[in-house]
Specification:
The structure is a single chain. This protein has one domain: Class II aldolase/adducin N-terminal domain (L-fuculose-1-phosphate Aldolase). It is built from 7 helices and 8 strands. A hairpin with a 6-residue loop joins strand 1 and strand 2. The longest helix is centred in the last third of the chain and has 24 residues.
């Protein structure tokens, strides 16, 4: 079986999506790129998370050719592959329809930096990209065009994409985005959220990225 360890990592990342309340039924997916071969491990289309195993994941090349796997790949595969081809720094992509974050995608609004947690994790507002149909490279093109230096982006009327240097980082971004979106939603119900000045956001982000936590491979 090709990329056995990466398959396990991607399977673990996919399991986290329903566990953290980021997806419903079979929606959403996690993928990862192998740095050595350039191959990408993707989730099969329409397979329930509880039925997912490393062996059921597919290995594809960057041109969407199936290298190993018997099931149909996710309908979002072309989106993931476009991102990988145009962002060599990205080795994992996550797609969700998490409720609070997606609610801002539905109204076409980015999420400004109003809390230190967002400054720490993202260092900037969460941007939003225009609407595009699924199943083609169109969404991938929008992600690459509009995400900038962010690790998360909202897709109008659709949902969320996050990126990372590995599965852990990309999934963490999706989890933290939903928590931030929930807090911002609750704040809007109480009044007008107060934005953190850009200069403070930069300081908070740098401190968190350079000094917080432990080193992970």
């Amino acid at each position: 079986m090709l990329l056995k360890e990466l398959r396990k990592e991607v399977c673990w990342g996919n399991f986290l999506l329903p566990e953290k309340g980021l997806v419903a039924w079979t929606s959403g997916n996690v993928s990862a790129r192998d740095k050595k071969t350039g191959y990408v491990v993707v989730k099969p289309s329409g397979v329930s998370y509880e039925d997912l195993t490393p062996a059921k994941l597919l290995v594809v090349d960057l041109n969407s050719k199936v290298i190993e796997g018997k099931l149909k790949p996710s309908v979002d595969t072309l989106t993931h592959l476009y991102i990988y081809r145009h962002r060599p720094d990205v080795n994992s992509v996550v797609h969700t329809h998490s409720p609070y974050a997606t609610s801002f995608a539905v109204i076409g609004k980015p999420i400004p930096v109003c809390m230190t947690g967002q400054a720490d994790e993202f260092g900037m507002p969460v941007p939003i990209a225009p609407f595009a149909r699924i199943g083609t490279e169109a969404i991938g093109k929008l992600v690459v065009k509009y995400i900038g230096k962010s690790i998360a982006i909202l897709l109008k009327n659709h949902g969320v994409f996050t990126i990372g240097k590995n599965v852990r980082g990309a999934v963490k971004a999706a989890v933290m985005l939903e928590e931030i979106a929930k807090t911002y939603h609750l704040a809007l119900m109480k009044g007008k959220p107060i934005k953190i000045p850009d200069s403070e956001v930069e300081k908070l982000y740098r401190r968190y990225q350079e000094k917080y936590g432990q080193e992970y491979p």
